[in-house]
Each structure stands twice: as C-alpha cells, then as structure tokens.
Amino acid sequence: MTTLHITLLSHGNRLGGIERELRETGNLVEVVDSAGTASLHAGLRATSILIVDCCGEAAPALARLESMLDGAPPVPVIAVCEEQTPGFLIEAMRVGVREVLTLPIGAGDLAGAIARVSRRSASLRAGQARVLAFASCKGGSGATFLACNLAHALANRPGVRVALFDLNTQSGDAYVYLAEGEPTHTLSDVLSGIHRLDPAFLGACLSRVAPGLSVLAAPGDPAAAVQSRAEHIGQLLALARREFDFLILDTGRSVDPLTIRALDEADRIYAVLQPSVPYVRGARHATALFQGLDYDMDKVGYIVNRCGSAGDFSLGDVEAALGRKIARAIPNHYEAVAASINQGVPIGTLAPRSPVSRALRDWSASLSDDQADGQPGWIARALGWRSGATQFRKAPARA
Fold first, then answer.
1. Do 266 and 258 meet the contact criterion of CB atoms below 8 Å apart?
2. Where are the beta strands (DSSP E) in 42-144?
3. Where are the alpha helices (DSSP H) in 194-229?
4. Closest-CA residue to 173 (of 364, 399, 344, 351)
5. What is the pLDDT of residues 72-117, one digit of tens each?
6. 171-224: per-residue pLDDT in tens?
7. Buried/exposed code over 348-369 (b: 16+ C-beta within 10 A; e: otherwise)
8. Parallel, antiparallel, or unpaired: how do β-strands 207-210 and 213-216 relate?
C-alpha cells in the first residue's frame, strides 16, 4: 500500500476523527492550524492530499484556500463541511476542490474520496494525456461544437491542461468556435516540419485561446495536408500525450489514413448524432466503420446532441435503432448554441446557466474525476445540476 503524505488544515480538533482514521491506515499526517496557512505554501510540494476544514464560516475558509493555492504546486484538495449547499459546492469547485465530504462522514466515504483523488493525481503525474476523438455521424451533428466546448470545460478544471487538434483537413473550423481572428500556425505547419518536432516546436504552433487550453487549427489550405502521412499523426500525438492532460481530436466526417490513425490512437471515440432518422442511419454507418477497423466497441461512446426537440426520437428509440447504449445526451438549446458559435465564445462563458453548459460541466467533471462516461462527478451528484433561467453574458462584437 502506498503511503500518502496528507495535510489537514483545520481549526481546533474538528478533524480529529479524520486524523485518527488516516494514521490507522498508515498515512503520514500533518495537522496545520488554519490560522497559520502562510507557512504552508512552500510545504505543499511534499503534500499528496490537502484536506481542508470548511465547517462554520465556509466562505472565509474557501477564500483562504484560494489565496494559499495561488502559485503553489498543484495538490488535490478535499473539503470537509457541515452542509453541502449549492453555493458552497460551486465556489469549492471554482477554487480547486476535488471532493467534498459532509460531517458526520459515513463509513468508507473518506477512503473513497482519497482513492479517487489519488487515481487522478497518479494519472497526471504519469504524463499521459487521455485522447478523446470526436467523429460526426452526419454533417451538422454538432461534433465540432461539442469537441470545442468540452475542451473549454475541461480546461476550466483546476490544473488541467488541454489541447484541441482540428484534424478535419478539408474544412476544419474549430478555431473560430473559441477565438477571433486567424491562427498564426496550423496543422500543416506541424506536419510539414515533422522532422523537427519537439515540445518547443509544437508549443510555437499552438494557439492559446484560454487559460489551460491550446488549439492546433486545421490547415487554411486543404491541399497543404494532402502529402502528410498517417505516421506523422502518430508522432504528433505521442509527443502531445506527454505535454497535456487531455487531447481532444476533431476528426470531421472524412475517412482517410490521417483520420484512421487518429481514431486508432484515441482512448475514447465519441460518435455524435442527433435524434432523427438521417443521423441514426449515419450512426449505423459509423458503427460499421468502427467494426471494420476492428475496434473494441467499448471504446466508442454515442453522444446524442440536441435532445428534446419536438418530433425527435426518444433516447430509447435511438438506442433501439442502434442496438447500443447512449453514453451522453446533450439537451437542445438552439439560442445559446447559435450565439456561442456566431460570437466565437465558448458557451460556458457566454451562457453559463444554459442546460448545454451544465451538461458539458457534468461531462468534464466525470472525465477529470476519472469516472465512467455517464456517471456524474461529485459536483454533479451533489447538485443534480439544478435548472435555472438562462443568463447570457455579453461578449465583444466580432470583426
């Protein structure tokens, strides 16, 4: 069993029971009074997990935690509170909390929370990004929108580094979903300079569109990538896996050696469709392609976009027609999605209370918490993503 160095940040002896349980299981435990956090900043480098007492006045505790974590080495945080209110949970997630436990802590809850954050931390330390490929079952499915906005939602998670690669060499436009103007470099620049590929060269070709999120745009000239070989994509992804936590690949609809190599390399393929006959037919064709490529179908997740429109199939109808379970259902909210696309602003920024934004946050939480698709993360489980009136934030007008 791995010995963890766990720091308890508490006032008085409120976390005494947690301290005893941790010591009994062989962990190294350091208890620091919450009034003395200034001296803790440098010591976080040796800390495996930080457990914070947020009982009593939760807002000041979270403010102190945010200040302490600013500029400190990344460390997974578990918060302990007396009541999980929606406001507290949202603020806790914002400042970097990975798990929340409520007093009194149930049997097994502490061990479960520690196991989850330990798995996630081990994954980050291993330096191997999870590669998620988005494939459109039919034009207009919304695969690019979902790829871009899931990437943005993941990058909003504390300490998560995300790269989005637009591999649609014929008509890719993922960059404009997230930023204004034109990218300085594109995929064709990387592939034409594959002989000098290293972290510095890749970094120079990426466009940083938001904190934690970089984009490798599709070629402006479709002919520029024609001569690129599939093994070049393999080299690119092998390097990028070591530089990021998540790689999001937008593969478009074309089937060519580059696309197939990208799908081969992906840890998970998301086949995006809508709940109507043409899209279900497209999903069947995609399924036949995946089977023809000899993929394990557990690698493929079917994402139904724009659910809930009048006259559409139900999810049960789609599953029956495909003979496959649906991994995720994204609700329909045309107004917010159209505004996001037209302004080039991620929907989570433009319309944070849109049901689409909530679905993407839930999806990103389940991925970054290392849980199975379709299983909500702790914030989603606690809140149930309560619905509310959608509020739009005005974004700058595009040129």
1. no
2. 49-53, 77-81, 97-102, 130-136
3. 199-205
4. 344
5. 667 788 999 888 887 888 788 777 788 888 888 887 889 888 888 8
6. 899 999 999 999 999 999 998 888 899 989 999 999 999 989 999 999 877 666
7. bbbbbebbbbbbbbbbbbbbbb
8. antiparallel
Range of the domain at 52: 5-125
Do 178 and 276 lie in one domain? The reply is yes
Q: Strand, helix or coil at 206?
A: coil
Tell me how far CA of residue 4 lies from CA of 26, 109, 151, 304, 350, in angstroms.
8, 17, 31, 41, 40
Extract the tokens encoding 110: 């502490």
Overall number of domains in the chain: 2
Answer with the one of 125, 156, 190 that is the final residue of a domain. Answer: 125
pTM equals 0.68
40 Cβ contact partners less than 8 Å away, ≥ 6 residues apart = 7, 9, 32, 68
CA–CA gap between residue 287 and residue 302 (Å, rounded): 10
Q: Which long-range contacts (CB under 8 A, 24 or more apart) does 371-379 make?
A: 371/116, 373/268, 373/301, 373/327, 373/328, 374/327, 374/328, 378/98, 378/99, 378/100, 379/89, 379/90, 379/93
| Residue 245 near residue 160 (C-beta atoms within 8 A) | yes
